[in-house]
């Protein structure tokens, strides 16, 4: 791995209001407001554990649904009473009122490959995509463009912490690039050899990223110095998940790897031939790790510390794909080709489904916050399902 274009000195701290690394830890997402879902996977550890302690019934009825384009595949982001979502089909990013669904602004941001969710922090919306080969920052209040950064071939990964935006690029063999959040000025970049498809996890000053050439990397957030790398069983498409000293990654070959966060040493793996392609990111809390598959419609739970299987959701035989699951109270929520599902957290038993009217279903992973489940569908509609009308 080759480090490129490093600018001497440490990165600016707390510029533009990005989350502070000093507030980060891997035991839980304490730094995130409990009424917000500001990034893909809820927090920068990508745990996908909602602050919502009570389940939201999918039969409660939709508070609102709003069509903004033609194809939403990323998680809706909920910050400061607003919902931000990117429509891949139309190449537009929209800001909606959290309570009413009113469209407050909509901007053409291009990029049919903006598959990753926006990152919202410090009054800005950050996006990165292959289609326009550009990372960009929008004013969260108005949608006006504040800066752009060309990534040559582009990628889909983005994260913001400590005044720095981390974006993936697959130009010249692929790179992870650190940009100043306020200006978009490049701080450093590191060649990683292959595309960084999912967003990185960032915990305690370390950036964890998986690449499609089967590598998992741990890099110093200040300068990109490699701390360790691990050769996984297959390409890593999903974001890594970090919890209690362990990094969890799923691979295209269907194996979950649990790695020591400090050294990259493998603690356990789920074994070959057990699961389909693990494109979705895992969800993990104190005693449960949940994974879903993209091609076989499986959902399975493991004990995070030992890898012992806890349950299989065996009554999902009719679905093909599962989006990144979210743990919320005693439920696990995920999208699929036939709608939005809720299963029992402790047993995997199917509880409810919100049928998708859209062809192709709901490839968006849900956000569960404020007694509401937010999800997008494959025909460009954002849905808000709430237990309070």
From TrEMBL:
Gene3D superfamilies: 2.40.128.630, YVTN repeat-like/Quinoprotein amine dehydrogenase (2.130.10.10). It comes from the Archaea. InterPro entries: PQQ_b-propeller_rpt, PQQ_rpt_dom, Quinoprotein_ADH-like_sf, WD40/YVTN_repeat-like_dom_sf. Residues 62-168, 176-387 form the Pyrrolo-quinoline quinone repeat domain. PANTHER family: CELL SURFACE PROTEIN (PTHR34512), OUTER MEMBRANE PROTEIN ASSEMBLY FACTOR BAMB (PTHR34512:SF30). This is Pyrrolo-quinoline quinone repeat domain-containing protein.
